[in-house]
Structure formats: C-alpha cells, structure tokens
C-alpha cells in the first residue's frame, strides 16, 4: 500500500489540474480501496489496445494517461521517422468524453510537431483503419472502449498499414511510454497542425465498402432488414452503404439510432449478448423481416439474427456468421477461379470448422492469436498471398484488405448479400448454414466468460489459469485428451505418444486441450475486460439436413457434460 500511496501523491503536484489534485487528496484521506484500485498499476496495452474505466489515476482512462501514451508514441514516431513529416489520423466513438479525449490526443501530437487529421464527429473504427492508409498516415488512433460498459473508454493505436500495432512496434512504443514521467507530456497545441476531416474520407470508405461487400445478390427488393446501431457509430455508415448496394427495405430502430454513451435501451451495447438485439428482433417479428443486424459502439462487431427452421428469429453466433461469410466468399472465388494464392484466417479459440472448410476448397488456412491485429499482420507478412476473409468467434469479420481490422460495416453488407441470395434461391441463411454442417462437419461452440474485477479479480484470474494448467485434464466427455497446446511456452504435446511440436505463434497466456474426437477446450484471460474465458468446441457428423435438430441436441448435451466435468456450469 505504501508504494500505491507514493504513486498517488505524485498526482498532487501543480502539473495536474486542481480538480484532479482535490479528488486524489480525498481518496488518500477517505477511500483506501478505491485509491488502491486506481493507482496499483498503470494502464496496459492488451489485445485491443488500452481500455479501462474513466477517472483519475494511473489505472484509469483520463487526459494524463492518454496524454502520456500519446507523448510516448510521438517520441517513438519521431525516432523512427527522423527528419520526416509525420501524420496521424484520429477518430472517436459515442462514449462519454471520447470527443474531448480525442481533442487532447490531437493537441499532444500537434505540440510535438506532428500533423493531425481529426474527424469532426464520431466515426466507425473500420473507417479509421481505412483512413490511415487512404491519407498515407504513419499512425492512427481511435478513442473507443468497443462493447464495454458505459464507464469505460479506450485508446487503440494503428500503424501505417492500417492494422493495430503488433511486434516489434507495440513493445517499443510501450517502452517509450514507460520511459516518461507525466510531467514530460506536451499539452500546448499547435492548432495549425490540426485539420478537421469528414466527407473526404467518408466517400471513398463507403465506395470501398460497397465494392468489397456487394456481390450483386438477387432478391434485394424482397429482402427485409432491421438494423440497430445500439446508440453507436455505425449509424454514420451502415444505412448509407446498404442503400448504395441496392437495399431498400431497411428499418432502422430509431430508439437506438441516436449516439449515446449511456446506451439507455440496453444492459450492454455488445451484440454478443442476446438482450442487445431484443428490440430489433421484436421489430423484425412485427414486420416480418428476414434479418436483424446490430453493431457495437465503434462498429467493429456485428450480431446477426435470421429466421430458423420454425420461422422464428434466432441469433447466429460469431462462429456461425464467420462460417457463412467465409463459405460465401470461397464460393464466389471458386466461380471466378482460384489462383492458388488465396488464404482465409481465424483465431486459435474460434471454430475448427474454418480449417475443415478451407481444406475442402484447397485454400490455405492460417490461425492467429485472439485479436484482429494478428489477422491484419498476416496480410503484411504474406504479401504474395491474397486474403479473402476471416473472422473470430467474438462476432468480428474482415473482408479483403482495404480495412485491416474487424469491419462491421462491410460485414453487415456481406451478411445481407448471403441472406438475399439464399432467399432468392428458395433457401435461407439458416438452411445454408445447415448445408455447411452437412458438407464440412457439424461444429458447435460454447463460451463461458467469468468476470473478476479489480486487483483481487486479476489475482483470481491468474490463479484459475494456473490451476487449469497445473492440474491437466485427462479426458473430456469420455474422449481422451490427445494434445495440450501451451501458448505460453510455444509447445504442443501429444500426451498419448509424447510427441512435441513447436507452436509458431507469438507467446500468449492461452492453454488448449484437444481430445481424440476433436473436442477442444481453451482458456485465456480477456485482453480488454476483467474476465477469464473458457471456449468449448464440439463436433459431430451430420449426414443430412433432416437430422440437424437431433445432432444439435446431442452436441448441446455434450457441452453440458463438459461444463459439469470442468465445474464451469
């Protein structure tokens, strides 16, 4: 506690605003627990950049923690691009303080002699990724906490390729930030270096989204869509992109259309949570819509609901949406003719069905750590290969390489293309998903996410993962564990034969058990929230579509058994 108190007292100097000093003093005098949580560590970069609760302290998002990160990034950019003109672009979402924090970040860059393009109003994360390359910038920043609760905000850093920072840049930037004291932040803006932007990037972004997501599907006039932006940024892009692609029957949920950092109509603005889409699904049932799409606040994730075999709206999970989008893109490429250099990609905790499908098409399949920055990195690492598309289980997808991050704008259009074409063919999105299960194997996944907040929660998560590793599982639902993949040591071991293989992926705190029947259990801490996540993947053979419900129920029962065995129920 003494070190925490010493750290807190450094925020009582005249460098900090009077209101900040007053709040810190009150915490020192009256609230040890809150003081500890705010100052026991510095904000860290995770899988999705820097994300946390807003407020005063080193473990909070505020003008000083973001200012320090921006100063460190400025120093690093000037070191890498010595003597060159440096440019950055900044976007922000609907969250409280996003606009003022974006302005602060712009001012720090400008104070360091760096040219800044600052969006004049909120924009989507995929547009920011696009803008980095379109404006030929050296870096980009988006102020967002993605799908986190209203008290959160965050700071994502993009490099010149439009992808979030990865090694070696990420470590070097963090080192540059950590080498600074708060007093070294330059807050005095050079207004001549800050340029407000809007439509000059919107137009080319919309055109590129339509070019990559529109496949001239039949049946657009007869396809009814309900769309909700969940109070976020996608209202600035998705309705326009759907309109330009020829969709006329689009109903926007007006009660959720206005950007609002309180997200007043939902418990969580996360399309992974079924409740988030409830208002849109209710509207879809009322008007007889074919599809519902909802996006998170910064518009990188999307949730999709379609009509199931009973004609009821059902949310497809991230793995299912990814399978359908990838299958569609592979079919489109097959019709054009494969050139032999195409690849698709996903993450190590997403469905193994992606690999099975890629093999069936004879297309290269690549896996990465969780986080789209690793998929984006593949595009840079394999310039001789062409990225068709890829996604992850957490409701994100990317089409082509014009955006180098999850892109709910273009993915929404692609989902609608799949649904419209299927309906025109006398089928449906859901029926074609079942056809994929028949063709490539029926894979079913389940995610268990446990929230553990604060300093004690971080220790609890650490211990849970330690126990999961040190007390290895021998069998899962009656099938012997065959492989243990430890991404911390970069080794995969066949526990039945003793064979060991190196894992050619950067180290990460992930452990995966795989059984003889292909069941997979993965465990990892979230890189963006105080959570530990367990991913269960099962599979079975579906010989014909008519047996879908029977096999689906069998896989559900198997998942329940696994949860019980691992005490994750």
Automatic annotation (TrEMBL):
One record GO biological process: purine ribonucleoside salvage
UniProt xrefs under CDD domains: PGM2 (cd05799)
Key words, A-Z: Isomerase, Magnesium, Metal-binding, Phosphoprotein
UniProt cross-references to PROSITE patterns, sorted A to Z: PGM_PMM (PS00710)
Pfam families per the UniProt record, alphabetical: PGM_PMM_I, PGM_PMM_II, PGM_PMM_III
MF term (GO), any: magnesium ion binding
Tagged with keyword Isomerase: yes
Alpha-D-phosphohexomutase alpha/beta/alpha domain span: 43-182, 216-305, 317-436
Transmembrane segments: none
Cofactor: Mg(2+)
Family: Belongs to the phosphohexose mutase family.
Protein name, entry field: Phosphoglucomutase
């Amino acid at each position: 506690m003494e070190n925490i108190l010493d750290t807190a007292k450094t925020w009582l100097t005249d460098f900090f605003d009077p209101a900040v000093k007053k709040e810190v003093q009150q915490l020192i005098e009256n609230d040890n627990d809150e003081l500890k949580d705010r100052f026991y560590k510095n904000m860290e970069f995770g899988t999705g950049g820097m994300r946390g609760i807003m407020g005063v302290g080193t473990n909070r998002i505020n003008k000083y923690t973001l200012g320090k990160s921006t100063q460190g990034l400025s120093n690093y950019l000037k070191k890498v691009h010595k003597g060159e003109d440096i440019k950055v672009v900044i976007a922000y979402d609907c969250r409280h303080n996003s606009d003022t924090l974006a302005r602060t970040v712009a001012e720090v860059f400008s104070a360091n002699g760096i040219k800044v393009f600052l969006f004049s109003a909120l924009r989507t994360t995929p547009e920011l990724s696009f803008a980095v390359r379109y404006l030929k910038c050296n870096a980009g920043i988006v102020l967002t906490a993605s799908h986190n609760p209203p008290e959160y905000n965050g700071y994502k850093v993009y490099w010149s390729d439009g992808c979030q920072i990865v090694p070696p840049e990420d470590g070097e930037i963090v080192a540059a930030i950590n080498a600074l004291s708060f007093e070294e932040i330059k807050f005095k803006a050079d207004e001549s270096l800050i340029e407000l932007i809007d439509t000059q990037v919107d137009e080319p972004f919309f055109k590129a989204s339509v070019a990559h997501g529109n496949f001239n599907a039949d049946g657009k006039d007869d396809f009814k869509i309900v769309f909700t932006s969940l109070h976020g940024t996608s209202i600035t892009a998705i309705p326009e992109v759907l309109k330009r692609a020829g969709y006329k029957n689009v109903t926007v949920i007006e009660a959720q259309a206005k950007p609002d950092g309180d997200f007043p109509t939902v418990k969580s603005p996360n399309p992974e949570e079924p409740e988030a889409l409830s208002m849109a699904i209710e509207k879809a049932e009322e008007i007889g819509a074919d599809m519902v799409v909802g996006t998170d606040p910064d518009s990188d994730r999307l949730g999709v609901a379609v009509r199931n075999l009973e004609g009821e709206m059902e949310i497809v999970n991230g793995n299912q949406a990814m399978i359908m989008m990838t299958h569609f893109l592979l079919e489109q490429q097959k019709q054009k003719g494969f050139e032999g250099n195409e690849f698709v990609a996903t993450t190590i905790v997403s469905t193994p069905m992606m690999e099975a499908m890629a093999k069936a098409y004879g297309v290269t399949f690549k896996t990465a750590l969780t986080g789209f920055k690793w998929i984006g990195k593949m595009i840079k690492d394999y310039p001789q290969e062409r990225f068709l598309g890829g996604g992850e289980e957490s409701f994100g997808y990317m089409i082509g390489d014009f955006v180098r991050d999850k892109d709910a704008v273009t993915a929404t259009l692609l989902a609608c293309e799949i649904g419209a074409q299927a309906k025109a063919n006398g089928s449906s999105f859901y029926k074609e998903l079942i056809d994929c299960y028949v063709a490539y194997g029926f894979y079913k996944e389940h995610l268990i996410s446990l929230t553990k907040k604060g300093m004690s929660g971080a220790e609890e998560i650490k211990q849970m993962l330690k126990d999961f590793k040190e007390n290895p599982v021998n069998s899962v639902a009656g099938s012997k564990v065959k492989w243990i993949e430890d991404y911390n040591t970069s080794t995969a071991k066949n526990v039945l034969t003793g064979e060991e293989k190196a894992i050619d992926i950067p180290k990460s705190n992930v452990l995966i058990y795989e059984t003889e029947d292909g069941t997979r259990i993965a465990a990892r801490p979230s890189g963006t929230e105080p959570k530990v996540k367990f991913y269960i993947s099962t599979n079975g053979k579906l010989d014909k579509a008519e047996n879908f419900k029977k096999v689906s129920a069998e896989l559900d029962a198997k998942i329940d058994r696994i949860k019980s065995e691992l005490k994750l129920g």
